[in-house]
Design brief:
4 helices, mainly alpha, 78% helix, Methane Monooxygenase Hydroxylase, Chain G, domain 1
Length: 105
């Protein structure tokens, strides 16, 4: 079986009407669009997971009483958090880190 490149490949579809070719083209574009949307959804879900990773990591470091490290991680979590209640929690935890580290600056 030989490999056909370029226009030679398209010649084997000459028997298809232009209306059918248009329908095939639209179908192909829709498949590409659906794949693109699916990929964007996956990337969005992964970024949402990354937001919670900073918060979980900061909470773990806080529990180990490594307050200065926790402050840096909480600051990263704050920049990626979108909900007000989560931001309030992060700010409170940063204040707690400063308080427990005896640094009220």
């Amino acid at each position: 079986m030989s490999v056909i490149y370029g226009f030679e490949y398209l010649k084997k579809f000459d028997y298809i009407s232009s209306r059918s070719k248009h329908a095939l083209f639209i179908t192909l574009i829709m498949r590409i669009f659906k794949s693109f949307i699916t990929l964007m959804f996956i990337l969005l879900a992964m970024s949402a997971n990354a937001q919670t990773d900073y918060l979980v990591e900061a909470n773990n470091v806080f529990a180990q009483e490594r307050y200065y490290e926790a402050i840096d991680i909480y600051k990263k979590a704050y920049t990626q958090t979108k909900e007000k209640s989560d931001k309030a929690y992060v700010i409170f935890q940063i204040a707690e880190c400063y308080r427990l580290a005896d640094n009220t600056k």
